[in-house]
Specification:
It contains ten helices and five strands; from the N terminus they run βαβαβαβαβαααααα. It has helices at about 15-25, 40-50, 65-75, 90-100, 110-120, 130-140, 155-165, 170-175, 180-195, 200-210; strands at about 5-10, 30-35, 55, 80-85, 105.
């Protein structure tokens, strides 16, 4: 039996939270380690459970999901974070992605897209709409464009090039004849050197600054 992918869920709507837990439990490849109705202690829960994926509601009492993502990224840069939101093309979604989320999922599509979205981020993807991607590009284009030396190694530049071409971690591993874990390690180092928190930010920065 293959190992299950571990998940933490933060959602203040009790009925939706229970429904999501049931949906994930029915999918044999996932295990919900914890489900919480607020994100006040999100970073503590992440350090305790060490999940692979976090499902994070944006609007929650006490502390919103965007602030929680910032705090989570201060203790864990590898966990994959999918924001749950009612609104598409929302400035809050944009801010969450800038804070370090890997993608987002509209709540109206949860029943049919939840498992596929989780699989997508685990494979190195970033589920989001084109309009949100354009907002991120616009934001990064307004930032300082001064050419910086990020001291990327030849292998890291190769990884970044493959990432920019839309390849998942599995596809990069196959192309470079490496294990997926080795690819994850290289990507982690790239994120640290570029000072970004997600694949989307890394690719956009690489394209804008002509690193690939």
């Amino acid at each position: 039996m293959s190992r299950k992918h571990t998940i933490l869920l933060f959602e203040d709507n009790d009925r939706l939270r229970e429904s999501l837990c049931s949906l994930l439990t029915m999918a044999s490849e996932f295990e919900v380690l914890g489900a919480f109705n607020n994100c006040l202690k999100a970073e503590t829960h992440v350090m305790t459970y060490r999940p692979e994926v976090i499902l994070m509601d944006i609007d929650m009492p006490g502390r919103d999901g965007i602030e929680a993502v910032k705090q989570i990224r201060s203790v864990d840069r590898q966990v994959q974070i999918i924001m749950l939101t009612v609104f598409d093309d929302n400035v809050h979604v944009f801010e969450a992605l800038k804070a370090g989320a890997n993608g987002y999922l509209l709540k109206k599509y949860i029943s049919e897209k939840l498992t596929s979205s989780i699989k997508e981020v685990l494979e190195g993807g970033a589920p989001m709409s084109p309009s949100i991607a354009r907002m991120i590009i616009g934001s990064m284009q307004q930032s300082d464009k001064q050419k910086a030396d990020y001291r990327l190694t030849k292998r890291e530049k190769e990884m970044l090039q493959l990432l920019a071409q839309g390849n998942s971690f599995k596809m990069i591993a196959a192309e470079a004849n490496l294990s997926v874990e080795t690819v994850r390690t290289h990507i982690k180092h790239i994120y640290e050197k570029l000072q970004v928190n997600s694949q989307t930010e890394a690719v956009i920065k690489a394209i804008n600054e002509k690193l690939v």
